[in-house]
Design brief:
alpha/beta, Rossmann fold, seven-stranded mixed beta sheet, 7 strands, about 15% strand, disordered N terminus, binds S-adenosylmethionine
């Protein structure tokens, strides 16, 4: 495991470590890893940013086959819950947790719209909703995808995060961070800005949130992805 994020070339974060880790998954899920699942080195750094005290309960919004939660639970004293809309990925995540004999981690088959955010202390998002705006770049065709759903999910998460207490930590990997409301500020950016720590630093100002200002945010897509705003 690398000791610091800076020790890695950010364009080569998917490594031998990932090849080894991904063997836990069936081939079909393993093949999606370099684009859709968090690399081990990123998950390790994200977990350190999110777990500030033993028992911190982290929600991975759109956990896929659970790679972030599994790596994070093996390295920290946090508790991790992954929620995922695709049942086959939830089953793969649960099977991997059992094989690794990991405690402190659970996976729920659910849509983000059904989740009680108040049950969690901190949140992790790796571009969960972007399939909705990248028509030709998707995991499979088993769930509805549309630009309208992108807006609905992102705005729901932003509303829920705005209601969490001051001090709440959110880590995003890739993307524009459309789900992060203006009452959060970016406290740390690693791996050439792909990995960001956001902390809620004030109660939301409804007039300001309504403007949805995000001029300072930058986008980096994962391997092979281009900016959705350029391709829109
Ligand atoms: C880019 S993958 C990230 C997986 C995992 N968080 C990781 O970092 O390895 C995004 C996942 O979010 C899931 N997802 C997208 N929209 C969702 C929703 N509305 N509710 C639950 N899961 C969702 C997708 O099915 C996909 O597995």
């Amino acid at each position: 495991m690398p000791e610091t994020a800076e020790a890695l070339d950010p364009d080569e974060v998917t490594s031998v470590e990932d090849e080894k880790f991904d063997r836990i998954y069936p081939a079909q899920i393993r093949e999606l890893s370099s684009v859709f699942w968090t690399p081990v080195a990123i998950a390790a750094e994200a977990a350190k940013l999110l777990v500030t005290t033993p028992g911190t309960h982290v929600l991975d919004i759109g956990c896929g086959p659970g790679k972030f939660c599994l790596v994070a639970a093996s390295l920290t004293e946090g508790r991790f819950t992954g929620i995922e809309q695709r049942g086959d990925l939830v089953a793969a995540a649960a099977a991997a947790a059992a094989e690794l004999s990991l405690s402190g981690v659970q996976f729920l088959h659910a849509n983000v719209m059904e989740i009680a955010f108040a049950d969690y202390d901190a949140f992790y998002l790796f571009n969960p909703f972007e399939e909705n705006i990248f028509g030709g770049h998707k995991i499979d065709s088993s769930v509805p995808l549309s630009p309208e759903l992108f807006k609905r999910y992102s705005s729901h998460v932003a509303t829920e995060l705005a209601a969490r207490p001051v001090g709440t930590r959110v880590v995003t990997y890739m993307g524009y961070a459309d789900e992060i409301p203006a009452c959060y500020s970016c406290e740390s950016a690693l791996f050439r800005d792909d990995l960001k720590l956001w902390v809620k630093n004030r109660e939301p100002d409804l007039a300001l949130e309504h403007l949805t200002l995000s001029a300072t945010r930058s986008y980096r897509g994962s391997i092979g992805w281009s900016s959705p705003r350029n391709s829109a």
